[in-house]
Amino acid sequence: MALPLPIRLPLSNTPLVSDSLALLSEYLPSPFPLLDAIDRSIPMPMKQLVAEAPLNRVFAEAIADGEFDDFEGRSIRLEVNGGHPGITFGFWSGRLRVLNGSGEATIRGSFSAFKTLAERRQDPDQLFFQRRLVIEGDTELGLALKNLLDSLDWDLKLRKLRLF
After folding, report:
1. Which of 61, 119, 128, 157 is the most buried (most CB within 10 A)?
2. Following DSSP, what letter does each residue of 98-160 receive, concatenated?
């Protein structure tokens, strides 16, 4: 009679490995200087073409309900630690727009902090209290955006992020 083989779980499912990978991703040298060089070589119209349609599709219901109206004519920059890459966007004429340059407020943090925020795996306030995300410039504007995004029912499903 053959004995059943033990079931092996992938190593990434163990708490020690997943916690270690999370820690390493926070402190390993950043690949973003390379991404910054790539980012600077892409013309702004191309960035707008690629980013604006998906952003407006994800937040279409909130935009239609007037949730973004308080942000009319304002600009906010989301930036990965180290200065780049980042994206500056604003709200004009009922649409989210990708802009060139800095924003009135900047929300800065590690890639993993932004990913945690987008996936809603942790309360946004905790990310700010832990200083994993930081607001600079017009903090009132940055907090208003954080509160708006926290109050909306949105998700980042790939089908909503299609370009056309």
Report:
1. 128
2. EESS--SEEEEE-HHHHHHHHHT-S-HHHHHHTTSEEEEESHHHHHHHHHHHHHS-----GGG
State the chain's mean pLDDT as an integer: 78
Dist CA 161 CA 150 (whole Å)? 19
What is the C-alpha to C-alpha distance for residues 96 and 151, in angstroms, rounded to an integer?
18
Read off the pLDDT of residues 50-59 as tens digits, 9 standing for 90 and up. Answer: 888 988 988 8
Say which CATH number the domain at 121 has.
Answer: 3.30.1050.10
Q: At what angle do helices 15-27 and 111-119 cross, to 10 degrees?
A: 130
Domain membership flag for residue 9: no
User: 8-57, pLDDT tens digit by residue?
Assistant: 445 556 778 778 777 777 777 666 667 677 777 788 888 888 888 988 98
